[in-house]
Structure formats: C-alpha cells, structure tokens
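step=predict obj=NADP-dependent oxidoreductase domain-containing protein n=280
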Amino acid sequence: MSSLTLQSTLKLTSGSSIPRIGFGAYLANEEAVYNALNAGYRMIDTAEFYRNEVECGSALSRWLSETGSKREDVYYVTKLWNSHHGYKATAEAIDESLRRANLNYIDLYLIHSPLSSRKLRLETWKAMQDAVKAGKIKSIGVSNYGVPHLQELLEWPQLEIKPSVNQVEVHPWLPRKDIVSFCRENDIVVEAYSPLTRGKRFKEPVIQELCKKYGDKTPAQILIRWSLQQGLVPIPKSNNPERIKANLDVFGFSISDEDMAKLDIKSYAPVAWDPTTSDL
Ligand SMILES: NC(=O)c1ccc[n+]([C@@H]2O[C@H](COP(=O)([O-])OP(=O)(O)OC[C@H]3O[C@@H](n4cnc5c(N)ncnc54)[C@H](OP(=O)(O)O)[C@@H]3O)[C@@H](O)[C@H]2O)c1
C-alpha cells in the first residue's frame, strides 16, 4: 500500500488505466476544476446532470494549453442522465456531452443510475457499446448499480463490452461490501462517490482520533486514505483551492490494519441518493 502514489492507476477490463483518485465535479465551478488539474488531479468526474460539462471542458482545455499537456494526460468521465435511457436518446446524449465539453472522446461514460426499465437499460448499453466502437468513448460503466442490476447486464446475451466501473457511494458509514465484492469478482473497478460523507461524519470520535494519531491529518485525508486502502477510486469534491490541494496529500502515510478495523463500521447511512436498491 505504501507504494501508492498520485500517479498510480488501475487497469480496467477495457484495457485503459484509470487514476487512483479523481476530482468530483458535482457543484464544482470551472475555477475549481482548473485548480484541481493544477494541484495534480488527473481525472475529472462530471455528468450531464451536473450542468457543468461546458465548464469542465473549458477548464481542461485551458489547463492543457497553459501547461502544454496532452489530452491523454487527463481522464474525463461523464454520465448519462436517467431521462435519456434508450438507444437513440443515449446516442444523442453522448454526442451532446462531447459537444458541450468540446472533446473528441470521453475516457469513461457511465449510466448515472439504473432508474428506468430493463429494456431501456439494455438498449442504453447497446448504444454505449456502439459509441466505443465508433471511437467516441474509451471505457463504459455504470453508477448506482446494485448486485441485481449488475447481474442483469452481465447475463445479457448481447453483452459485448463488460462494464469497467461501478460508481457508488462508499465510505465507512456505507461500506457496501456486497457490491464491492461482487465487482471485485467480476473485474469491475469501484469508484467511491461522496467519499467525504459530504462532511457529515468529520466530527465522529474515531475520525478525530485517527486525525491526531496520524499527525494532524484532516478528516477528509483520513477518509480518502481509507478509500484508497480499500482498493476503491475516491472522487472527492471541493471548490476551495486549499482543500483541493490538501485532499491530494494522502500518499505520505498509511492507516494501519488495526485502525482500518476501527473504521469497519456496521452501518448503512447514505448521504446522497440510493438507487442501488431500486427494483429491476
Ligand atoms: N454517481 C452519482 O450518483 C454521484 C452522486 C454523488 C456524487 N457523485 C460524485 O462524487 C463526487 C464527490 O461527492 P460529493 O460531492 O457528493 O461529496 P464529498 O466529496 O463527499 O464532499 C464534498 C463536500 O465536502 C466539502 N469538503 C471537501 N473537502 C473538504 C475538506 N478538506 N475539509 C472540509 N470540507 C471539505 C466540500 O465543500 P467545499 O467545496 O466548500 O470544499 C463539499 O461540501 C461528486 O462531486 C460527484 O462527482 C456521484
């Protein structure tokens, strides 16, 4: 675990590599995305729903031109909103996301949630497979999929490209062991959203204790480090330049097994929404 660095990546079934940590762009402004790239994040996580794909694309292109970096140096993730499930609507939504961000490919495209119907979810996947074949997307995945939703997709006879990623809310108060182990068994990387619990658990005694023990770490750093050590890909969000930087300062220490066990909390407490339990 000590060998983890800001440059570490995980290999996806698509063959691409995903950074071990990303910048969550929900409610983030253009300056925050630009600051995140300057601070060292190499993944931007946005969505149609966040209504900031234009700003994410602008921040990316500004940063690329100012630093002379290449498009391949940054991993761009966006998501299909629920109202656009279905073959035609998905194909159009992909083109719209590309247009808004002024990109010629998306690194990872996710179905934001399973909230539609089996028919629409699978038609959506077909459109995403076709977009990969057309070179518009490098890797495809899902978000907020529970185990039954993942099984539905993996057992679909027309599946040609397996999901590379499932992005779900995961933190010590929502460990989601069922989903995480199912994904691990099926070579699906789990991205952890709301990894900071949106700040709601920062004052928990166990977090405060570990902040002191590891030498004045912030609650956010403890939670991000926990996520990394669980083998997850955390995507913390901040609009504050100092917090954007501090949230990346998580590679110089590691939480002991004994302290990881203290964070093994039997709890099911989402801070965002929870479509993982929705009916098929
Ligand atoms: N797929 C989905 O359905 C889904 C759902 C939710 C989220 N997500 C993704 O996951 C990302 C992260 O989740 P999230 O935005 O819900 O929550 P989060 O990252 O757990 O927490 C963000 C909140 O914590 C604050 N914060 C950040 N760093 C801090 C620090 N060092 N100290 C104190 N406060 C700090 C931020 O405020 P400031 O900005 O003021 O710092 C913000 O209010 C999203 O941006 C989005 O990309 C996906």
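step=describe
Residues 101 and 254 are 36 Å apart (CA to CA).
step=end
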